[in-house]
């Protein structure tokens, strides 16, 4: 066993200050069209063909729309390949590979999200067991079921804003441990499903990572307070499992209220980008035995900071298996050909 290399916290810990908050929610877009899907979360962006050579003005407006609407959608991006998706993703930040899920062969950072290998039908924020969990994820639809297979996102910023004052005070004081021991893609999947046993085992055992995050983080770009929870949660620091589970359900229920949610019906070539610091999401497992495939690239985040100025802390960090020579596609894991 060895220590997994995790981002240098001295470099990526960022304590937000008022000077950082140049974000202006009233900004008027000049280069893209932004059409909100709901008032609290979600917008469809048009007038853009995603590529790795977009102008800085367009990229800046895409990033602004992402901060404002938390998840943004692009129709008609069938021209994108995995490598072109990676090139576009690099305009938004540094791609971050998953520590226990192999990438697709022929790519540097792309995960194949394939229903033959599991279904992520549980509310989660991507990879929160890492201290610098992703700031954003870019998902491109490849194969869509004829019926079902939508994804839903919840706004964890509006969820915090809607808490009663007494719960805000409690939330501000809590810290929570997140772990990869919980595999959301195992939730609700039949144990006889093809390829799922090996995938689940690798997810849980290739690394053992636990990180303590503040329940409430200050968003480094907007200054908003947002809840950090979801189903990589293990326990609240200082509380037993019973009390932790009770409080988890209380706060999680506030996050997933219908008013905080947007639902997207996929078409082939659709791209969704979400602010992983201000959302949770889940895939709806309502499409039977049909095939559902997407390609995902995630962007490295910074170390969360709580309202008290304390950053997240790594509690456990063990690497049990090197997955650099493994690849995953069509729901199965295999060794890369030399």
Report what the structure shows:
With 338 residues, the chain is of the alpha+beta class. It has one domain: Double-stranded beta-helix. 20% of the residues lie in helices and 26% in strands. The protein has seven helices and 18 strands. It has helices spanning 9-12, 56-69, 82-89, 156-161, 165-173, 196-205, 241-255, and strands at residues 33-36, 43-46, 71-74, 111-114, 136-143, 151-155, 175-179, 207-214, 216-218, 225-227, 233-236, 261-264, 271-275, 279-283, 293-299, 313-319, 326-329, 332-335. It has a seven-stranded mixed beta sheet, covered by helices on one side. A hairpin with a 2-residue loop joins strand 17 (326-329) and strand 18 (332-335). It starts with 8 loop residues before the first helix and ends with a strand.
Rg from C-alpha positions? 19 Å
CATH class: Alpha Beta
CATH architecture call: 4-Layer Sandwich
The CATH topology annotation reads as Double-stranded beta-helix
Number of helical stretches of at least 4 residues: 7
Counting DSSP E segments of at least 2 residues, the number of strands comes to 18
- What general form does the structure show? globular
Helix amount = 10-25%
What is the straight-line distance between the termini?
Answer: 25 Å
The ordered string of helix (H) and strand (E) elements is HEEHEHEEEHHEHEEEEHEEEEEEE
Number of domains: 1
Unreliable parts: 183-192
Mean pLDDT: 90
The CATH superfamily is identified as Clavaminate synthase-like
In the sheet with the most strands, the strands line up as 1-2-3-13-5-15-4
Task: Please state roughly what percent of the residues sit in beta strands, choosing from under 5%, 5-15%, 15-25%, 25-35%, 35-45% or over 45%.
Answer: 25-35%
- Main sheet properties: 7 strands, mixed
Class by alpha and beta content: alpha+beta
């Amino acid at each position: 066993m060895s220590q997994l290399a995790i981002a240098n916290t001295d470099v990526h810990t960022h304590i937000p200050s008022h000077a950082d908050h140049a974000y202006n929610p009233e900004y008027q877009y000049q280069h893209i069209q932004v059409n909100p899907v709901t008032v609290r979360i979600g917008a469809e962006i048009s007038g853009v063909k995603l590529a790795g050579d977009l102008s800085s003005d367009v990229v800046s407006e895409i990033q602004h729309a992402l901060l404002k609407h938390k998840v943004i959608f692009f129709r008609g991006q069938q021209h994108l390949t995995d490598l072109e998706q990676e090139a576009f993703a690099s305009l938004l930040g540094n791609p971050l590979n998953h520590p226990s899920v192999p990438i697709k062969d022929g790519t540097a950072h792309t995960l194949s999200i394939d229903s033959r290998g599991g279904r992520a039908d549980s509310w989660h924020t991507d990879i929160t067991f890492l201290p610098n969990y992703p700031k954003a994820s870019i998902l491109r639809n490849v194969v869509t079921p004829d019926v079902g297979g939508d994804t839903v996102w919840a706004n964890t910023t509006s969820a915090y804003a809607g808490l009663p004052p007494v719960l805000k005070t409690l939330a501000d004081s809590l810290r929570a441990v997140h772990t990869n021991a919980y595999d959301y893609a195992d939730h609700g999947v039949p144990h006889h499903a093809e390829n799922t046993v090996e995938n689940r085992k690798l997810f849980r055992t290739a690394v053992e990572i636990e990180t303590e995050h503040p329940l409430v983080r200050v968003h480094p770009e907007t200054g908003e307070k947002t809840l950090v929870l979801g189903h990589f949660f293990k326990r609240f620091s200082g509380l037993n499992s019973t009390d932790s589970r009770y409080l988890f359900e209380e706060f999680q229920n506030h996050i997933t209220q219908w008013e905080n949610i947007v639902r997207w019906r996929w078409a082939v070539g659709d791209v969704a980008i979400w602010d992983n610091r201000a959302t949770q999401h889940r895939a709806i497992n309502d499409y039977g035995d049909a095939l559902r495939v997407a390609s995902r690239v995630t962007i490295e985040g910074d170390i969360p900071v709580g309202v008290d100025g304390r950053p997240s802390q790594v509690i456990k960090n063990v690497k049990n298996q090197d997955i650099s020579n493994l690849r995953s596609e069509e729901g199965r894991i295999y060794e890369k050909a030399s």
